[in-house]
């Protein structure tokens, strides 16, 4: 927190080089962890030992703590945007993250500014799918398909999101199929491929698989195929 406070002050000085005072900074911690918050609330509590004679020379400050973890009974209040952010953080450790994501989608529908709603939806999906890895992409797409919206902007985004997933699935299917065919051809012509070769072929992109498949028709060795 001390680093954050100092960084804010430094940034203000760069933006206002002629200023002779610093603005007040309100230090706030929003906590949504699994365990109980145990960090000291006062900077002096981090210093040990702290002789009384030195206390006046050590920074002394505290911070506001807003605990929205599952262990608290904090009621999430405020405007829709505020509730969205807090609930998204609080529910990220839920045992049913997909169901919670559905609840958040319902809240997004209440955001009046549709451009803002779209940005929130995009960030929310990235947070839950890519940021935490607790929700599968295919499950999110199924959830979006089950939640029709009458808003043209939102519907366009959801349709595009779902279609991208279908395209990715088709490409992945083609890649897996191409790898399987190439491995079978290698087995027929050069004998069973090693695990190293299998891993290399399985991770290759479609263009590379096609190039290797062309080479195997005339190649005299496996190295000539995969070089």
The helical percent reads 55-70%
Mean residue pLDDT: 79
Helix-strand sequence? HEEHHHHHHHH
Strand order of the largest sheet: 1-2
Termini, distance in Å? 54 Å
Number of helices: 9
Sum up the overall morphology in one term.
Answer: elongated
Oligomer state of the chains in this structure:
single chain
| Sheet with most strands | 2 strands, parallel
> Low-confidence spans: pLDDT under 50, at least 5 residues?
none
What's the total count of β strands? Answer: 2
Backbone structural class? mainly alpha
Computed Rg: 28 Å
Strand content range: under 5%
List the helices and strands and how they pair.
Layout: H1 2-15, E1 28-31, E2 64-67, H2 80-90, H3 97-108, H4 114-131, H5 137-146, H6 152-190, H7 195-202, H8 206-215, H9 222-226
Parallel strand pairs: 1-2
Quick recap:
This protein is mainly α and 227 residues long.
